Amino acid sequence: MLLAEVLVIVTLMMVIVVVMIVVMVIVKVVVMVVVMIVIDVKVAVVVIMVVFVMIVVEVVMEMMVKMALAVIVVVVMVI
Fold it and tell me: Does the record's keyword annotation contain Transmembrane helix (predicted)?
């Protein structure tokens, strides 16, 4: 039981790290695209997309943190 829970926690941490890396890469790509494109309409669309993505990422991160806390609480209760 204990081993499985530790594995779950480690997996969660790894997932969070991967998500962070992906977000960083996406942000860099978006910035490059924005720099490359100078047309107002396209820039506006890109900005809107970036804002939307950031909001989604924030929500996902919040959910992950809550899940991690729940797992930790369960582990503590089991121990």
Answer: yes
Distance from C-alpha of 6 to C-alpha of 42, rounded to nearest angstrom: 46
Instruction: Extract the tokens encoding 4.
Output: 């499985």
CA dihedral angle for residue 50, residue 56, residue 59, residue 65, rounded to 10 degrees: -90
How far apart are alpha carbons 44 and 76 in whole angstroms? 48
pLDDT per residue over 33-71, tens digit each?
Answer: 776 666 666 666 777 788 788 888 888 888 888 888 888
pTM: 0.37
CA neighbor of 12 nearest in space, from 77, 75, 68: 68
Compute how many other C-beta atoms are within 10 angstroms of the C-beta atom of residue 2. Answer: 9
